[in-house]
Automatic annotation (TrEMBL):
<dbReference type="Pfam" id="PF12146">
    <property type="entry name" value="Hydrolase_4"/>
</dbReference>
<dbReference type="InterPro" id="IPR051044">
    <property type="entry name" value="MAG_DAG_Lipase"/>
</dbReference>
<feature type="domain" description="Serine aminopeptidase S33">
    <location>
        <begin position="19"/>
        <end position="271"/>
    </location>
</feature>
<dbReference type="InterPro" id="IPR029058">
    <property type="entry name" value="AB_hydrolase_fold"/>
</dbReference>
<dbReference type="GO" id="GO:0016787">
    <property type="term" value="F:hydrolase activity"/>
</dbReference>
<dbReference type="InterPro" id="IPR022742">
    <property type="entry name" value="Hydrolase_4"/>
</dbReference>
<keyword id="KW-0378">Hydrolase</keyword>
<protein>
    <submittedName>
        <fullName>Alpha/beta fold hydrolase</fullName>
    </submittedName>
</protein>
Length: 290
């Protein structure tokens, strides 16, 4: 079901009572269609699922050459996400799930006080301020001279992601499930090389996500972090543990970390995704009943 063309909404079976809504924020180089399996699982267990495609992604483009083109550091995408959340909000529990780049967007929403009964962070990390400042400066400097599909920045960020894994798939760092990787690589709307402006936007999101410790108004909000122990984005577990410890240190009272052994970046598309979804459902049900 489409709401106002942009919001993708998956509903539980008509005969089933709705426990709540999960708004999913997708990651870099992908779009809402890739979450149909997760949405179906949540629907079957009583949750509505809503999503939009970010600027420069999926169905939010007019031409293929617009894939990976972002003009305002994702600021309008953040506004669209907030507007979409408010449009689908009702009197039932609402949860926000962000994956990868979407997890940094979710952290920004948490810090900015967007109301939710819980935030879920998938494939995330706690990046260093120094690396973010350097990346934001470098991408901004390059953008002065050109805005093109940036092989240099793409290699700097992702060039080492496959070092730990054998095989010939370019995106094998995403999942151990070869079929899921093959589908990703075959999809013309996935795996693109972003423009320089996109990378500047990514570093903007990372920078903004670090501000989450400046306010303590939302420490009662439940936060669930899950990741694979072999996810290079999460620095093979250490970056995710830093994120978890950060939330604990600033006083979040309901903070949960789940690390899946040998799991890679996309745990919702991993070989043990049913286990991952079952754990997610258990967490959701306990918070929805409060």
């Amino acid at each position: 079901m489409e709401m106002e063309k942009k919001i993708k909404l998956w509903e539980p079976p008509a005969a089933m009572g709705i426990k709540g809504t999960v708004f999913i924020i997708h990651g870099m180089g992908e779009y809402s269609k890739r979450y149909e399996g997760t949405a179906g699982y949540l629907n079957d267990n009583g949750y509505r699922v809503a999503m939009i495609d970010h600027a420069g992604h999926g169905n939010n483009i007019k031409r293929l050459d617009e894939l990976g083109l972002v003009k305002d550091e994702f600021k309008s995408s953040l506004e669209e996400i907030v507007d979409s959340i408010e449009k689908i909000r009702d009197d039932r529990p609402l949860f926000i799930l962000g994956h990868s780049m979407g997890s940094f967007m979710a952290q920004i929403l948490l810090e900015r006080g967007v109301g939710s009964d819980g935030f879920i962070l998938s494939g995330s990390t706690r990046p260093s301020k120094v690396s973010i400042k350097f990346g934001y400066f470098l991408s901004g400097f390059l953008l002065i001279f050109r805005n093109k599909r940036d092989l240099i920045l793409n290699k700097l960020l992702f060039g080492r992601n496959n070092l730990k894994f054998t095989g010939d798939k370019k995106f094998r760092w995403l999942s151990r499930d070869e079929k899921m990787v093959e589908e990703y690589e075959a999809d013309p709307l996935c795996g693109f090389i972003p423009y320089t402006s996109y990378f500047k936007g990514l570093f903007y999101l990372l920078r903004e996500s670090l501000k989450i410790g400046n306010k303590r108004n939302y420490i009662k909000t439940p936060v669930y972090i899950f990741s694979g122990s072999d996810d290079p984005v999460g620095v093979y577990g250490s970056g995710v543990e830093k994120l978890y410890e950060f939330y604990k240190k600033i006083g979040y009272r309901d903070i949960t970390l789940k690390l899946y052994t040998k799991g890679r970046h996309e745990m919702l598309n991993e070989v043990n995704r049913r286990e991952v979804c079952d754990d997610l459902l258990t967490w959701l049900d306990r918070r929805a009943e409060r």
